[in-house]
């Protein structure tokens, strides 16, 4: 049997679904309907979820204001079983030093995927461009 080397030959349709119920993330199999994982990542409420195109992983934004996660890492990538693949929240060092942005982790308030890039906005007015695969912040812009 010969394996194809062309990625377009493979079905990249996600086989799982997600929902947020009372702050908990529930990931279920579309095929069996079975719940694969349910809970609060790192013990915190979930406020937003973005599925990663072509995978069964998810970008998850955790509640930061009500949960005491202010100035904490509140953005994670989860696999379908609730395992953390990476977490992010540290601003790039020496990029924006000053009153607007310090050297401490920042909480994010909004996330979106645009042109296959993850963009996370912080409460201090910065947008971080994050590598979806690694969680590395490769660009930061002041947008506020």
* Biggest beta sheet summary: 4 strands, antiparallel
Number-wise, the strands total 11
**Number of helical runs?**
0
Q: What is the arithmetic mean of pLDDT?
A: 82
The radius of gyration over CA amounts to 17 Å
Spatial strand sequence of the major β-sheet: 4-5-6-7
- So what's the overall shape? globular
* CATH level-4 homologous superfamily: YVTN repeat-like/Quinoprotein amine dehydrogenase
Give a short overview:
The chain is mostly beta strands.
Please write out the topology:
Layout: E1 16-21, E2 24-29, E3 35-39, E4 46-51, E5 58-62, E6 75-78, E7 84-88, E8 108-114, E9 117-122, E10 126-130, E11 137-142
Antiparallel strand pairs: 1-2, 2-3, 4-5, 5-6, 6-7, 8-9, 9-10, 10-11
Describe this structure in words.
The chain has 144 residues and is mainly β. The protein has one domain (16-142): YVTN repeat-like/Quinoprotein amine dehydrogenase (Methylamine Dehydrogenase, Chain H), CATH 2.130.10. Helix content is 0%, strand content 42%. It has no helices and 11 strands. The chain has strands at residues 16-21, 24-29, 35-39, 46-51, 58-62, 75-78, 84-88, 108-114, 117-122, 126-130, 137-142. A 4-stranded antiparallel beta sheet has the order 4-5-6-7, with no helix packed on it. The chain has a 4-stranded antiparallel beta sheet with strand order 8-9-10-11, with no helix packed on it. A 3-stranded antiparallel beta sheet has the order 1-2-3, with no helix packed on it. InterPro entries: DUF7957. It holds the Pfam family DUF7957.
């Amino acid at each position: 049997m010969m394996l194809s080397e062309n990625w377009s030959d493979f079905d990249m349709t996600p086989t799982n679904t997600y929902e947020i119920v009372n702050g908990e993330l529930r990931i279920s199999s579309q095929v069996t309907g079975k719940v694969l994982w349910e809970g609060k990542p790192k013990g915190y409420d979930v406020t937003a979820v973005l599925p990663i195109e072509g995978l069964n992983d998810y970008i998850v934004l955790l509640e930061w204001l009500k949960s005491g996660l202010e100035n904490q890492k509140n953005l994670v990538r989860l696999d379908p079983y609730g395992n953390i693949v990476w977490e992010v929240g540290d601003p790039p060092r020496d990029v924006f030093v000053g009153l607007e942005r310090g050297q401490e982790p920042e909480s994010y308030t909004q996330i979106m995927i645009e042109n296959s890039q993850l963009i996370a906005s912080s409460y201090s007015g910065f947008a971080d461009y994050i590598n979806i695969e690694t969680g590395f912040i490769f660009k930061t812009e002041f947008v506020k």
